[in-house]
Amino acid sequence: MGDPASAMVLEKLGSIERRLDDALARLDLAIEHQKIGEEIQIETVKFFELTSGRQQMEMEGLRQAMAAAATTTQDAITSELDALRRMPNLLHQMAQGVVSALYPAIQGAKQAANLAVRDRAVSGPIRCVFLVHSIAMWDALADVYETMARDSRFYPIVISLHSRLLGMGGFGGEADVSQAFLRLGVPHLRFDMEDSFQGLAILKSLAPDVIFRQQQWDGDIAPGFATGELTFSRLCLVPYGTTIVQQFDTQADQSSLSQLGFDQEYHRVAWYVFCETEHSQAFFRSFRHSDPAKFVLSGYPKVDRLLEARGRGAWPIAEPHGRSFRIIWAPHHSVNERSLGFAVFASIYKAMLEWARQDRSIQFAFKPHPGLKNALATAGILTTQEYGQFLSEWCSLENCCACGEEYAELFDASDLLMTDGVSFLTEYQLFDKPLVFFDSGNHVAFNATGQMAEACAHKVRRFDEMQHVVRQYQRGAHWGFEAERAALKKLLRPNSRPAAAIILDTIAEGLGVAVDVPLYRAAAR
């Protein structure tokens, strides 16, 4: 330990030891003083009992003086005890100082070691790990994984993780992700341990050449899988949704572009970020913190995934009396004032329930954002129990249901979408069906992509207005916006080749794997 940080630690520890020795010595002396004072008082009392008159008065004065001395001694002891009581806090503060001094050195050493591991030569198939904490976001990566599973250049591994929605509450939910993968027939490993660093140790033993994480934000991910822990491999990102907003906070400057969406630590250290549109590629590059070549215009794999569902629609509500008018109601989670500001659920959910009760000619599939329930509780709008009661009443109606997870087939089977934002404003347009956008009137500004998506939607700002528009389309009103929708779809599909194929070729070429390599994974599967 010859470095300055180590010397500083030893010096601080020596100072602590010297202070403790001094405090204990003073405490011993104070206790000895107290014993002497008590002995003097006892002898004084004895002498006082044998004398009278003036001697008694003199001895009374002496006794008072001794009592005052004893009190002074007791105060000294109390002071020393108070100093000892403060010692744990002092030690804690000094430990924090030690950690602060050593942390940069430790992190630097760890990152140097990680980079040395990352830059090892690739041998055999390219080992790609998909860290999955949200099955609702899986469609963004599903085609990439499935294409890899058919390509002898790659060995894909899927891992289910714990997470927390919107960075709130404790970590959990891995079992739900795992169960969904079982239903989908996706082989996967389970990192269901409470200590995420145990999972990190297993991940390192897998020696992945490439890691895909679903989000750029570390707040939703357990600390063992934070950006700084994953740099032993080449990090890649396929955005889980098309970002259509300028900012993520209604109080932020709406004329500037948010770093949250395009300039996080994950973006900066990533090997490749695969951009869904020309707009997003330009947004990423505008911050000028990374090599612009790593922002690859691949297109969005989820778009291809959604389009594959056309003609394969599945509607979740029985229709014993013939075909109904099918509506998806998709409320956003941003009920908090300091957020995106799109959500109108709190102001319309009772009216929606009454509408569904009264009009059985319409079937409603409730498709909320996964974070809505927690957001309502956190904002104090609806408790978890109250939200559960609403869902129970909603699903008790024969023309209503609640949906989760994958939704491509739901989109294809529906007739119309009602939403207050955000990602569905682009994704539903691929199906060429009416989209009614309930504008809250106080949401964050749209970026260039969002403006194109908004131009394709029928915008309303009141519940009765939304009902009126829906009934028009139910009676067969023409769905327009052809030119606007064509421009948006052209933006969303920038290449003639599938996005997943471009992503695989980019990774292989980046690692110098231009031709097929021997297929080693048959036995493992």
Structure description:
This protein is α/β, with parallel strands linked by helices. It has 3 domains: about 5-120; about 125-300 and about 500-510, Glycogen Phosphorylase B (Rossmann fold), CATH 3.40.50; about 315-490, Glycogen Phosphorylase B (Rossmann fold), CATH 3.40.50. About 50% of the residues lie in helices and about 10% in strands. It is built from 18 helices and 13 strands. A 7-stranded parallel beta sheet has the order 3-2-1-4-5-6-7, sandwiched between helices. A 6-stranded parallel beta sheet has the order 10-9-8-11-12-13. α3 (about 140-150) crosses α18 (about 500-510). The two termini are about 50 Å apart. About 35% of the residues are buried.
Question: What is this structure, in a nutshell?
Answer:
This protein is α/β, with parallel strands linked by helices.
Level-2 CATH architecture of the largest domain: 3-Layer(aba) Sandwich
Question: How many helical stretches?
Answer: 18
Strand neighbour order, sheet with most strands: 3-2-1-4-5-6-7
Unreliable spans: 517-525
Strand content: 5-15%
